[in-house]
Amino acid sequence: DAGITQSPRHKVTETGTPVTLRCHQTENHRYMYWYRQDPEHGLRLIHYSYGVKDTDKGEVSDGYSVSRSKTEDFLLTLESATSSQTSVYFCAIGLAGAMNEQFFGPGTRLTVL
Amino acid sequence: GQNIDQPTEMTATEGAIVQINCTYQTSGFNGLFWYQQHAGEAPTFLSYNVLDGLEEKGRFSSFLSRSKGYSYLLLKELQMKDSASYLCALGSGNTGKLIFGQGTTLQVKP
Do B96 and A94 touch (CB under 8 A)? Predict the structure, then answer.
């Protein structure tokens, strides 16, 4: 199994504060993705990375930034959290190149008050 | 765009067969994926279709018709543990991006 962890698993924060979520993989996969999942919208891509320092925007990137300084870590930052960013955040890795299945991390439940 | 439509909810009986449909409107995609997601857990990969036709994996099969903009996931010999959400997704571009439908919540009853 692909090793992928997310931290923290749960976080409660206040509007206007910065928040960083971490995704860590142990198997040197090139492609990594950040999604958010909401009941009314389903799973939506925020940002993705195709290598160290190579990132691009997804469907719902406004209000989010990412960084990937090492292959194994992909960070998602909310510069100034808003209540609309309350969601479950999933990180995923592309298991065998760009065209194949993605393996998802356990998720982070973020609540912005 | 890549509008992806799935029924919101379905109910089926243990031991039966259920078909979950997915229709889409897109100018192009690489493949169509199905994921399973149990409540409170992460999505897990079930199947992948690139070409038209049926892909079978044990009790689960997935079908794709590109000309009709249509796919389905077929679950046979339903078990209680199959109660979950089933997500249809289109593979986009050459970076492995996935665009997901909103998912179908399946409830299996005894």
Answer: yes
pLDDT tens digits along B19-62: 999 999 986 788 899 999 999 999 999 999 989 999 998 999 99
Q: Kindly determine whether residue B100 and residue A104, on different chains, have CB atoms separated by under 8 Å.
A: no
For residue B63, name the pLDDT band (cuts at 50, 70, 90). very high
CB count in 10 Å sphere of residue A51: 11
Contacts of B42 in chain A (CB under 8 A): 90, 104-107
Q: B3 CB contacts (<8 Å, ≥6 apart)?
A: B24, B25, B26
CA atoms within 13 A of residue B74's CA, in its CB half-sphere: 13
CB contact under 8 A, B94 and A42: no
